[in-house]
Design goal:
Elements lengths: L34 H28 L3 E11 L7 H15 L6 H14 L10 E6 L5 E8 L5 H19 L10 E7 L5 E2 H28 L16 H22 L3 H20 L3 H17 L3 H11 L19 H15 L2 H4 L6 H20 L4 H11 L5 H8 L3 H25 L9 E6 L2 E7 L8 H8 L9 H17 L3 H19 L4 H21 L4 H15 L7 H18 L14 E6 L4 E6 L6 H34 L4 H17 L9 H18 L52
Antiparallel strand pairs: 1-3, 1-4, 1-5, 2-3, 6-7, 8-9
Length: about 775
């Protein structure tokens, strides 16, 4: 049987013929969607529409429909402040806290008194909602009244504004006197009435529709998985402990194989090229050195028809030590980067490689394609809505990094343990370089390094490290502390663990620490089993308590003390007094206001959404307000950039991840434990995405799609040889590992059955 032949029908003679030709295979009928797939699609569509319409109708009948806004200007009246700018600064510093006064009980009671004494429209706090919002960089406070009565809402806004002035002016009086430090003037009474109920109900309707989409799609995927489940291996491992031991053994073989490959000529050349690329860029900052590594890997991939080399070069440039935008040469309105060149070469060389025809269909190809389509729709919408081309193209190019999923998956589809081993060594080496560069002061190798950190109300001078590799450590630490990671050679495991912990700690990133700890405990329970969980948890608690105490005392140095204070700030409440929390809440409020007006398409990829970046110009004594180009909540950013299509695409990807994890674990496929660990790693990054700017961060995108590629490969992986397919080539470090050894296939599973489609040999336990 040749490398690409499926099992022949009875009576068919071997020969060079193709499907349907003499001596060849019988023609394979095209796969058609089964009836349950059509029913599931119909259920998802109907549920999405019904949930959206029901949510829209429910909120339309409950929220207040009509709004009117009045404007107040506050002035400083302190006689000691002869400097107008100083007085204006005093008002601007305090006006943020006055926003909440507008909706207070004191304002409502005062509004009732004003309406009663003035003989005008009565003010009913039970039917009128009052909110306040100040215009950044000004002394203007907007007071908005919301009511179901269109005829009286403008008068209610005027009354509420006057009551707000009285309450705020009274709160700023000098002690024991009637003189106040500020004065307020109603410059614009209740303005035009706006039907706000439809906007808010439409916003909630979109969320309801997306929620219905997620629930219905998840239910259909779990009850009866779609066509993606056909490529899951038919072999099962009855014992979960055996599954863990099987994957740990293969991981150990691949880890040792990569180390052994360094002694070969290809391995020595690979190390030399990587060292020249890192050192050359660190010394000169020239794009020539990382581009040289990419081109060298591309040449070797072309020569050997092995796309793993170009895929590893893509990971090296994407999540290594280089900045995400190392420009090559300007081409018209855009300037390609080394990372984009690496992605293009990896895609082209994947088509030439031998892995595409042998790899099973990826379970995440559909979600990745859906995200790319949604990004394209968002880019077109940005231009159609009059957005800036420069902002759009830069962010759209970042989103196109999702395409890195395809070369990485097809390169390692039959050897997923090798992909994880490459990620471990790559992260360990690159983070070690970052730590050494921080100690030596090599600024070019410190991407996005900061020299201070704010914890509570104090600012400390520290080395706050970031870098492209940082987000990769969250899923890798989950793996390193699970039973799936072999502990021998001990120095390799311990070295990777210490480097990862050091880099995570030096990042001062609290949004990663909490979900990371929880997921480590969860994975330990799944892989180690409940018997040893309590003992291991107790050991970790004791070690953590000792290390935390030593760090707090300062015996481990100032950097370690600040890390401990940073970690404890969430428990002590210091974190909630920082500017970062209200700053992110203001970002969310601006995004909500924009999405209420444009819920379907958002603002388009890369466009400003209404967020503000406020600074104070000491030289000119004035507040400067610039549009904020980013938002920390990436789920709102998806909605802003790609509209409803982006929400559905990312929801599709999230549901598919959960479905693959649950289905693999229920069917007890050989790679199920690794699928669970990688799924939890993706969940850690998903939790972090609500607090960090990751959507258009190229390294973060590559990390997520690489984890998806690895999970997809593990879902279809089997340690039993697939009959009739050639063994994969082992070109040194890219393949890693010694030659095939004795047959150590597990004996606990059923007898392997022929694969459903031609596939490359998955290999024995050495694979």
């Amino acid at each position: 049987m040749t490398a690409v032949e499926a099992p022949r029908a009875t009576g068919a003679q071997p020969g060079p013929g193709g499907p349907g030709r003499p001596g060849g295979n019988p023609p394979t009928p095209p796969r058609r969607p089964s009836s349950h797939v059509r029913v599931a699609a119909l259920v998802v569509v109907v549920t999405t529409l019904v949930a959206g319409l029901a949510t829209f109708a429910a909120f339309l009948s409950t929220v207040g429909h009509y709004q009117s806004t009045a404007e107040i200007v506050f002035n400083n009246t302190m006689t000691t402040d002869d400097n107008i700018a100083k007085g204006s600064r005093y008002v601007q510093d305090r006006i943020t806290s006055w926003e909440g006064v507008a909706g207070s009980e004191a304002v409502a009671q005062r509004a009732v008194q004003i309406a009663a004494t003035g003989g005008g429209t009565p003010f009913d706090p039970a039917t009128v909602t009052v909110t306040g919002k100040h215009l950044s960089g000004t002394e203007v406070l907007q007071v908005t009244a919301t009511s179901n009565d269109r005829a009286t809402v403008a008068a209610d806004a005027t009354t509420a504004a006057r009551a707000t002035i009285d309450v705020i002016v009274a709160s700023e009086r000098y002690p024991g006197t009637q003189q106040s430090k500020i004065a307020g003037t109603l410059v614009n009474p209740g303005g035009p009435v706006v039907d706000h109920g439809v906007q808010e109900a439409r916003w909630w309707g979109v969320l309801g529709g997306v929620a219905g989409f997620i629930v219905s799609l998840l239910a259909c995927s779990l009850l009866r998985p779609g066509r993606w489940a056909r490529d899951l291996p038919p072999h099962t491992v009855r014992s979960r402990r055996r599954m863990v031991e099987l994957n740990a053994t293969v991981m150990g073989d691949e880890m040792r194989g990569l180390l052994a490959g360094l002694r070969r000529p290809e391995g020595k050349i690979t190390v030399g090229v990587a060292a020249v690329a890192i050192a050359g860029y660190g010394i000169t900052g020239s794009m020539v050195f990382p581009l040289f590594a990419v081109l060298a890997a591309a040449v070797w991939s072309w020569r050997t028809a092995d796309p793993r080399w170009s895929a590893v070069a893509l990971l090296f440039t994407g999540v290594g030590v280089f900045p995400e935008k190392v420009d090559v040469v300007k081409l018209g309105p855009v300037t390609p980067t080394v990372l984009e060149v690496a992605l293009l070469l990896a895609l082209l060389l994947t088509l030439r490689g031998r892995s595409v025809g042998f790899a099973p269909r990826s379970v995440f190809a559909g979600p990745a394609g859906a995200i790319l389509v949604a990004a394209t729709i968002g880019a077109v919408a940005a231009l159609a809505l009059g957005g800036e081309f420069g902002l759009m193209i830069d962010n759209y190019r970042a989103l196109l990094m999702v395409a890195a999923f395809f070369p990485v998956y097809f390169a390692f589809a039959r050897r997923p343990h090798q992909l994880v081993s490459v990620l471990l060594y790559l992260a360990g080496v690159c983070s070690a370089v970052v730590l050494v560069a921080a100690a030596a002061g090599w600024s070019r190798l410190l991407v996005d390094e900061r020299s201070s950190v704010i914890t509570g109300s104090s600012t400390s001078d520290v080395a706050r490290l970031s870098g492209p590799t940082l987000n990769l450590w969250a899923p890798l630490l989950v793996l390193l502390l699970s039973a799936l990671m072999p502990r021998k050679p001990r120095w390799v495991w311990l070295g990777l663990l210490l480097i990862g912990i050091a880099h995570e700690a030096a990042s001062f990133n609290r949004s990663t620490w909490a979900p990371l700890v929880l997921l480590i405990v969860a994975v330990a329970a799944v892989t180690h089993g409940p018997k040893g969980l309590v003992r291991r948890a107790a050991v970790l608690v004791v070690i953590g308590a000792i290390g935390f105490s030593i760090a707090l005392t300062g015996l481990a140095g100032g950097q370690a003390k600040q890390i401990a204070l940073r970690a404890s700030s969430v428990v002590t409440g210091q974190a909630y007094g920082e500017d970062s929390l209200p700053d992110r809440l203001r970002e969310n409020a601006a995004a909500y206001a924009t999405l209420e007006r444009q819920p379907w398409l958002g603002v388009g990829v890369g466009q400003y959404y209404g967020g503000e970046l406020i600074t104070y110009d000491d030289e000119h004594s004035r507040t400067v307000v610039d549009p904020r180009p980013y938002i920390h909540n990436q789920y709102l950013r998806i909605w802003l950039y790609m509209g409803v299509f982006g929400l559905l695409a990312y929801a599709f990807a999230g549901v598919r991840v959960l479905s693959v994890v649950v289905t693999s674990w229920r069917r007890r496929t050989p790679g199920a434990p690794m699928v669970v660990v990688l799924g939890m790693g993706i969940a850690c990054l998903a939790a972090q995405a609500s607090l960090q700017t990751m959507l258009v961060d190229r390294p973060s995108i590559i990390i997520v799609v690489t984890l998806m590629a690895a999970a997809s490969a593990f879902a279809t992986w089997t340690p039993w040889p697939v009959p009739g397919a050639p063994a994969p080539r082992r070109p040194g470090v890219g393949a890693g590992g010694p030659g095939p050894g004795p047959d150590r296939r597990p004996r606990s599973g059923p007898v392997p059955s022929p694969p459903r489609r031609p596939a490359a040999r998955a290999g024995t336990m050495e694979e």
